[in-house]
Specification:
mainly alpha
Length: 142
Amino acid sequence: MSKKHIEKVAEEAQLVFWSKVVDMIPEPTTGDFGPAETFAFDQACKDAVRIWVYYNFPRDTVLRMAADALPKLVAEGSTEDDWGEERQQDAENAFFDVVEALLPAPDWETLSEYCLKATTEEMVDAALNALDMKPEEDTDGN
C-alpha cells in the first residue's frame, strides 16, 4: 500500500465511473470536462479512496508493520537477513508508505518534517499518533 497505489486505484475507478456515466447518458457526443473541474474531481477521488482505506485497512496490520519497523536486537541464531540493516530499512519504508497513503497530505508533511530530526522509535510513535492507532495498553499489569 502506498500513495502511488491509492492514486492508481482512484484513476482506475474514474475510468469505470465515466464509462458508467456514458452508458447511462448516451446522448452527449463528446466527453469535455473543464481543467479546474477535472483537477477537483481527481483530488476528490484520491481523497475518497484514501479515506476509505483509512477506515478499512486492518489496524492490526498497521501495528504489526509499526513493530516490524522498529530496530531489532540481534538474537542468538539470527542472521543479517533476519535483522540486518537492509531488512530494517525495507520494513521502515513499507510502514511509512502505508502511513503516507493513509494520512491527508498536510498531516503527512507535518509528520515528515518531524521525522527529519527524530529517532526511528520516535518516528513510528509519531506516525501511530497521527493515525490515531496507538497500541492498546496492557491493563493486566504485564
